[in-house]
Specification:
Blueprint (H helix, E strand, L loop, with lengths): L1 H11 L1 H11 L10 H14 L1 H6 L8 H17 L3 H20 L1 H6 L1 H5 L12 H19 L4 E3 L2 E4 L2 E4 L7 H18 L3 H32 L5 H4 L3 H28 L18 H31 L6 E5 L8 E5 L14 E8 L5 E9 L23 E10 L2 E9 L5 E10 L2 E3 L2 H11 L7 E9 L4 H14 L3 E5 L3
Antiparallel strand pairs: 1-2, 2-3, 4-13, 5-6, 6-7, 7-12, 8-9, 9-10, 10-11, 10-12
Helix pairs in contact: 1-6, 1-14, 2-6, 5-6, 5-14, 5-15, 6-14, 9-11, 10-11, 11-13
Length: 497
């Protein structure tokens, strides 16, 4: 029955299950390829604790159905808003609430660790990656300085006589850190340690995982210096080497933890031996029937809200609906809109339903570039606040100088001042739109989209205006005011057959 609820959560919230599978099988980034192992260990822990589960009184809790409903509603909201991490973090909570509803709190309490262990496979750990990368850069900068290696650091780059090494985002040691924490947590569970001791194991192994990653990077620096960048660790791969270092530090953790536990246990008084729990007699048919009915009720509570969303998507699909961007005519004395064949400004928005860049020219030959992008339906694969999207583009060479919010006759806009490789400045105004509502904060627009998606299927769009500071930035802002009032395109849906 417990495994049945496990499968029910995976099926009822299949978009999140599919997303987890993507993270767990991503052999390019490798940050969460331990996910399926964590899942198997979690399920094995249920089997290991079966005597405690069978010995716990069976007390289904109908009030937990309300918790399932609240968690399910939250999942539907984040799914509609295309915000993935909270969706995934809700899955273990949904499973735990379903166990309480079907079997009761005494049974769920024995499964608290197996269910909680799943969080070591969740991709939300990526949020601390910047901190781990920063620590790796700072520590290796100190090591280079202390050892006197002829190298110097600029940002995340280590410059050696034979070449340059980058402590990239993937060199933060996040994978080693999360796996180390998972192993430390499992160690404390198998040993039956107290909460205080388990927290100590987590801190100790987390520190060892970080030190191991710093050692890995510094060894690569030394090898690169000694071989003039010809070492295998630079020319081919250093991933396997990182795991070898991690295993060495993990065995160090095991030895130290065993020694500390032995020393601490000798100071404690000897406790009486507790007889192991015996397997209870087979449950009666009435108990099986009652628990099965509660399990079916929990299953129904799990599937009702996501089922309504999936049904609405089938009845009211938007996948075949396109979007059209209508460009306004140029105001008196201006010319355009013209297609932009070349520009330093190349915004990138992945999997957009429609996007386009146009240019309008003033009577004096000064231009304003107008960019529009729209999504018929936002998903994790395509949305305004996508991770890989860039308003500036990654090939333009435009460097941001400052950002603020400006108020105009047409409402508020995000203002970004940028500079190109020649030192020329330009100003970019942008804002999002969810249906007819405008936002200057992209995060708020994404959150509002989740609310609006409950009842409607709003079109999501972004409009951006760019003017070069010629003859100065005041003149550029004046052109942008005209563009904001008269040159903003409209987006409309094209409904196919």
């Amino acid at each position: 029955m417990i495994y049945g609820l496990w499968v029910a959560v995976a099926l009822a919230y299949w978009p999140s299950a599919v997303a987890l599978n993507g993270f767990w099988t991503d052999t390019v980034n490798n940050a969460y390829t331990h996910g399926y192992l964590v899942l198997l260990v979690s399920m094995w822990l249920v089997v290991r604790d079966r005597r405690r589960v069978f010995a716990a009184p069976l007390k289904p809790e109908p009030r937990a159905l309300a918790a399932i409903g609240i968690l399910s509603l939250a999942w539907v909201y984040f799914y509609g808003a295309a915000i993935q991490d909270p969706q995934l973090l809700l899955l273990p909570l949904l499973l735990f609430a379903a166990i309480i509803a079907a079997l009761g709190w005494p049974v769920a309490r024995t499964l608290l660790f197996p269910v909680g262990f799943l969080y070591f496979a969740m991709p939300a750990w990526t949020d601390i990656n910047f901190l781990l990368q920063w620590l790796s850069i700072k520590v290796n900068g100190i090591l280079v300085w202390v050892t006197g290696i002829p190298a110097y650091l600029t940002g995340k780059y280590i410059h050696l006589p034979g070449g340059t090494l980058e402590i990239a985002f993937g060199c933060s040691g996040l994978h080693f850190f999360v796996v180390g924490l998972a192993l430390a947590a499992l160690y404390g569970e198998l040993a039956g340690d107290s909460l205080r001791r388990r927290l100590f194991w987590l801190g100790l192994m987390g520190l060892f995982a970080l030190i191991g990653n710093w050692v890995r990077i510094f060894v690569i620096v030394i090898a690169a210096y000694e071989t003039n960048m010809k070492t295998y660790l630079v020319t081919v791969s250093h991933y396997a080497f990182g795991w070898a270092v991690f295993v060495a530090f993990f065995f160090l953790f095991l030895g130290l933890a065993g020694s500390l536990a032995h020393r601490w246990d000798r100071r404690r008084p000897v406790e009486g031996h507790t007889a192991p729990l015996q397997s209870p007699a087979a449950p009666s048919r009435d108990i099986v029937g009652v628990s099965l009915s509660h399990a079916l009720t929990a299953f129904a509570a799990l599937v009702v809200l996501p089922g309504l969303v999936y049904g609405r998507n089938l009845v009211w699909p938007v996948a075949g609906q396109g979007l059209r961007i209508d460009w306004p005519a140029a105001p008196a004395g201006w010319s355009g809109p013209e297609r932009v064949s070349y520009s330093l400004w190349t915004p990138q928005y992945f999997n957009a339903t429609a996007q386009s860049l146009r240019r309008y020219d003033t009577p004096r030959g000064r231009s304003v570039e107008v960019f529009a992008v729209a999504y018929r339906s936002q998903t994790q694969q395509g949305k305004l606040l996508g991770y890989w999207n860039s308003l500036l583009g990654d090939k333009a060479g435009l460097k941001p100088l400052g950002a603020r919010i400006v108020r105009t006759a047409t409402g508020r806009w995000r203002q970004l001042t940028v500079r190109d490789a020649t030192g020329t400045r330009s100003i970019i105004w942008s804002r999002d739109a969810i249906g007819a509502r405008h936002f200057v904060d992209a995060r708020l627009s994404q959150l509002w989209y989740g609310i609006a998606a409950f009842t409607t299927r709003p079109v999501s769009s972004l409009t951006a205006l760019r003017a070069i500071c010629r003859p100065d930035c005041a003149a550029a802002r004046a052109r942008l005011n005209v563009a904001a009032a008269e040159l903003v395109p409209t987006v409309r849906a094209e409904i196919g057959r």
